[in-house]
Design a protein that fits this description.
Blueprint (H helix, E strand, L loop, with lengths): L6 E4 L7 E2 L9 H9 L6 H18 L9 H13 L5 H16 L2 E2 L4 H9 L3 E6 L6 H8 L8 E4 H4 L6 H11 L6 E5 L2 H10 L3 E5 L12 E2 L5 H5 L4 H4 L9
Parallel strand pairs: 1-4, 1-6, 4-5, 6-7, 7-8
Antiparallel strand pairs: 2-3
Helix pairs in contact: 1-4, 2-3, 3-4
GO molecular function: hydrolase activity
Keywords: Hydrolase
Organism: Pengzhenrongella sicca
């Protein structure tokens, strides 16, 4: 019989906050203006495409190792293509900062999410386990949405050096929380990173999948993070021992 989990490990982007990736040059103004000032003659759409290609290249290069790369790595590759030369260190840093500002405009804070986290925090110790190319990005958004005090631990792929679903990031999260896999529950919205990966590491998991696209047991599927609390109250003893995770004082 499994003991109830004490810690809730949460994906961040797509789970706690919403994010809209660039599909056009709209919202890309700061980054494009900066590259134009550096001498680029590309259109906004061409510039955006170069950044997208840089992400794709680095993701492909690390597909097997799952080594995480920094946003400055992306900026270096993108600016080389945009400028037709090797960018200076200052240009790389400025490009990464500009892209971060533009990208963050697409991050939204769902209404009621702080209340959801407060409720879950009465039952679990909360931790964030996120794939991100900037070590401060998650903390910045938690602070902006007024939820920083609700989360005890933040573990990022850029901090660990490996991204989900590499076992190292789940091991790092458990170590940071001071628990074993049986004491954790993982929730996220990406099948491999947030469901398969944690379970391979011995961590029970739920997948946020409102469109029913992934092949997971219906008992492990959620429409949103807000639905988790209600699901815990009806889970059977084969899932959580007593059937209900204990409330924390």
């Amino acid at each position: 019989m499994l003991a109830p989990p004490t810690h809730l490990l949460l994906d961040f982007f797509g789970t706690v906050v919403e994010n809209s990736p660039f599909h056009s040059a709209e919202g890309f103004e700061r980054t494009h203006a900066l590259t134009a000032a550096m001498g680029s003659a590309l259109t906004p759409e061409q510039s955006r495409a170069a950044w997208s290609a840089a992400f794709d290249r680095l993701t492909g290069d690390t597909a097997e190792s799952l080594d995480e790369f920094a946003l400055t790595d992306v900026a270096r590759v993108a600016l080389e293509a945009i400028l037709g030369r090797s960018p200076a260190a200052g240009e790389i840093e400025a490009g990464a900062r500009a892209y971060q500002v533009d990208w963050n405009r697409g991050v939204g804070y769902p209404a009621g999410m702080v209340d959801v986290l407060e409720g879950l925090g009465r039952r679990f110790t909360l931790a964030i386990v996120s794939n991100t190319h900037d070590v401060d990005q998650v903390q910045s958004h938690l602070a902006a949405m007024g939820a920083e005090s609700l989360v005890e631990t933040v573990v990022t792929s850029i901090g660990v050096g490996k991204r989900k679903p590499h076992p190292a990031i789940y091991a790092a999260a458990l170590a940071a929380c001071g628990i074993g896999p049986g004491s954790a529950l993982f929730v996220g919205d990406t099948y491999l990173a947030d469901f398969v990966g944690p379970q391979r590491h011995g961590i029970r998991a739920f997948l946020i999948d409102p469109r029913r696209l992934a092949r997971v047991p219906e008992s492990r599927r959620l429409d949103s993070l807000a639905a988790l609390a209600g699901r815990l109250d009806v889970l059977g003893s084969d899932e959580y021992g007593s059937g209900v995770a204990p409330t924390r004082g």
